[in-house]
Amino acid sequence: MIAPSLLAADFGNLQRDVEMINNSNADWHHIDVMDGVFVPNISYGMPVVKAIAKYATKPLDVHLMIVDPDRYIKTFAALGATNLSVHYEACTHLHRTLQAIKAEGMKTGVALNPHTNIMLLEDTIKDIDVVCMMSVNPGFGGQSFIENTYDKIRALKALIERKGASTLIEIDGGVTATNAKALKDAGADVLVAGSFVFNSENPVESIQELKDIAG
Ligand code: DX5
Ligand code: ZN
After folding, report:
1. pTM tops 0.85
2. Does 172 qualify as catalytic in the annotation?
């Protein structure tokens, strides 16, 4: 599956860019919320997510790069999030956070920084619908892909199979048509792409290009 990241959209033409995703072969809208504390950047908050939700026709895949995300679980449920991903590194009581996300009727997501070992999910994997594996350090679009990600994908896939979980593996950061095939072959189920889609001459075709390779 392909999830274009609206972080790379033109915020002056947000409705147009959300509708471009609606009219493309993309599967999810990927929505990056950053607080300037967990990551060294601030992206956008609830009013912008509300505006995206107003026009979006595909599932909303919300990636929270914020400290203490428990404070906002109900808020993002009310805004219409389909998947809510919290960072492993930002959750002291991850199991409790996952139950709270489920209780609000959303799919559970856990994002892992590049330095975070996948084995730390061994005891929660059956409660996780999507692992958002960061293939760059979170905070900015347009960074280069970290090659160690392939080993992490294979290890996570093995953990999911060993535990009999049905978790999807989502790769976030530096995804292009050049690495999409190798990511899929390593075991990725969902590819997030920001700059590759929005910096292209024809975003709908770039989404289709990724879809043809790895969708
Ligand atoms: C980075 C965000 C990503 C970002 C990806 O912290 O989580 O979703 O938008 O952008 P690209 O595809 O440009 O690396
Ligand atoms: Zn993201």
Report:
1. yes
2. yes
